[in-house]
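Chain A, query sequence.
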Amino acid sequence: MVREGLITQEEAVFRVEPNQLYDFLVPRLIEKGEKIEVLATGLPASPGAAVGQIVFTAEDAVKFHSNGAYRTIILVRGETTPEDIAGMEVAAGILTSRGGMTSHAAVVTRGMGKCCVAGAGECTVDENAKELRVKGQTFKQGDWLSLDGTTGRVIAGQLKTLPAQPDDPDLVKFMSWVDPVRRLQVWANADIPRDAKQAVLFGAQGIGLCRTEHMFFAEDRIEHMRTMILADNEKDRREALKKLLPMQRADFTGLFKAMGSLPVVIRTLDPPLHEFLPQREDLLVEISHLEDTKPRSPKLKELRPLLARVQELHEMNPMLGLRGCRLGILYPEITEMQARAIFEAAVAAKSKGAEPHLEIMIPLIGSVEEMRHQGAIVRRVAAEVFKEKGETINFLVGCMIELPRAALTAEQIAEEAEFFSFGTNDLTQTTYGISRDDINQFLPAYLKNGIFKHDPFATLDQAGVGLLVKMATAKGRNTRPDLKVGICGEHGGDPESVKFCHKIGLNYVSCSPFRLLTARLAAAQAALQEKQTGPDLHSTS
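Chain A, predicted structure.
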């Protein structure tokens, strides 16, 4: 229509629904002429399609992918954990019976651009028997399933798929009309160089969230991480961290090279330590089995202290427990190691032609005192590295705002934090008092009865959570007028949430690489809307 002169480029930008762009980046099911048997409907946690043979553990996924036994794989779990990352890497799609739109499975697969159906409560997953039971049918390992992550459908059998079309010339032309009109920058959440390169291809203007914890689950690292956690004194912890240092440094060097002169925000360690250890129930079963069958097994000497440490770290509510900055305050050597790895990597990348634009982000800050403590460690280590290497790198130290108290005291926190990034997944969780992993138990009823108009973890609650974001931004800039502010929760790729971020004057949104086109278009539409109606007089910009 633009080519024919029927509408202008600006009108064209308004004619496209932002979420439609995702379809170009991921495979889609070919359903025409096919008999479709929908077994269950879960949450559309990560759009696209996947068809494959089902497996029930990450280990089996890796094994069957490596030996070529299964051409494509669907990983079926009750819910995934960070330990499943290797299996998720090789799977075409993920199905979970529990979890929400910001569960581990949802967040990780969106970053990978892989299909995920989460919280399919009609499905019963028996990981021990390796069976999936749904609607009176039983599916075993090796059976075929088709997933539609765009609608949340779980479909029996093997459908065909239409491949992704990211290089479609009309898409490329359309996006050339989008970017010149937007003010809001669009960054990406990416943890490894491969994802960073993908993000740059999709138009990312920086990395707004690099989650360092995902780097510790690789096979050559998890044992050192567990040794550090099991240590009962600082000397042994430091010894284990010394072995992790070169691995982290290599990760960050690759990330800085991939991003060139674009900004990279690296978050220090965030999750509870128990996530790096085996599950308590699994250890109990294994120990009980060995005691019955091999009571003199030397493995029991390894497992019993491991179980004791797992039980010691057990928390009733780990999402509100020993995690984020609290870890760095209790064990400052963790923050020291990560800061050293980051700065040494930045210096190394600079020596090879990159221009690192580095920002270090402290998670779960609730008070200015916590920010001051962790910021001091980061700046001290930076000075040590720069003196040793004879080179300096410009950097910022900021924090994630993901607790209501942080938002309410943002004026104080900005005295120490040089930037804010709203972790809207956790901010929604802590504001509503709703577990982001368990919301699907009652979300359908809430939506049906009109209590929620939408899933608050999918689209930002502007009246409540959004008010905290707006308030904290204003308070922070009252203290530090040049404060850079963005969001890095999953709302960064939701069109309505992106438009809200533009309206209240944020600098950027950060989202999964495969949601970048959606966010770019939403930001452009927000700018054009403002151009037509005038700015919001109540915005913080």
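The first helix runs from residue 9 to 15. DSSP finds 20 helices and 21 strands in the chain.
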